[in-house]
Amino acid sequence: MGVRGKVRMSVSVMKAAMKEMRRSVTYMPRPGDGAPRGVTLIPGDGIGPLVTNAVEQVMEAMHAPLYFEKYEVHGDMRRVPEEVLDSIRKNKVCLKGGLRTPVGGGVSSLNVQLRKDLDLYASLVNCFNLPGLPTRHDNVDIVVIRENTEGEYSGLEHEVVPGVVESLKVMSKFCSERIAKYAFEYAYLNNRKKVTAVHKANIMKLADGLFLESCRQVATKYPGIKYNEIIVDNCCMQLVSKPEQFDVMVTPNLYGNLVANTAAGIAGGTGVMPGGNVGADHAVFEQGASAGNVGKEKQVEQKKANPVALLLSSAMMLRHLQFPSFADRLETAVKRVISEGKYMTKDLGGDSTTQQVVDAVIANLD
């Protein structure tokens, strides 16, 4: 046997040994941990059915210990049907595609309704560089944690006199404190080093001032985590010029929407960023940035929607359900497909269909 043959053989032996070493770690589940879990599934509008079907296929290929209860919900409905809310309350976990939100016309967003009805007070979007996906900035790994139930999204608007509308921004100490606690707990449990509070307290001294005061009080209980503050307009500038300075960001409702979408654009686009909305009892996982964005009609017709964001969101869901090995397998497979660069949808510079990406992910599952 030649030198090259011996080298190849030794490399394969090392890989096999490393695989065995990884397997030697013992995980002790609680009795019943492996029982299949029910998950409410809302395909939604636009590209929603395409990308949720992608998740269904991958879960089936992995033999993931869950099953879906599927419901038709659309953005032009007046309310989320009660049977859907009952399903989420029973299962405690939901996966959803985007729901179209009509602009104007007095029809409220079902995405916002769902968060309020289930008290999903924390929105979490993870924006990070994916190997193989070229971006202007490297070393981006930002978690945006957004208060999800009040602020400008309270929906308290009325016409005072014809041509004059008053819109109320509601901020409470209770909601500000609990989102701050969630952000610091997340940082502590995930070995994050810094939490940045985003605000506009220089102008909205009472509302954003209350939010800042709450963040400062909570920060004193986590001395191992660095805390700083930034005004939202300066934050946007810093994000596009030096995003690697941010770690965990905690924000009121409206700012979080803007900051999360900006961070997602910097790290590779809304089509690849995972996210979820969580409360004390329930969690809804969806595309992280522009979750209400249902895509363009052409994407739906050509079946070329990017499923990566929802696949990564479903990996977050698996981790939430305490199935970490399935989450790891899915994330690894998705990252391999992106790294290889052969099957990419149009938003990532390729021309692949949703199904081609799904097939590639399934082929890369260990």
TrEMBL record:
Name where it's found. Answer: Mitochondrion
- The entry's keywords: Magnesium, Manganese, Metal-binding, Mitochondrion, NAD, Oxidoreductase, Transit peptide, Tricarboxylic acid cycle
InterPro entries in the cross-refs: Isocitrate_DH_NAD, IsoPropMal-DH-like_dom
Instruction: Write one Pfam family the protein is assigned to.
Output: Iso_dh
GO biological process entries: isocitrate metabolic process; tricarboxylic acid cycle
CC per GO annotation: mitochondrion
Task: Please describe what this protein does.
Answer: Performs an essential role in the oxidative function of the citric acid cycle.
Give the UniProt family note: Belongs to the isocitrate and isopropylmalate dehydrogenases family.
Q: Which NCBIfam families does this entry report, sorted A to Z?
A: mito_nad_idh
Please report the name of this protein according to its UniProt entry: Isopropylmalate dehydrogenase-like domain-containing protein
What is the native source organism of this protein?
A: Vigna mungo
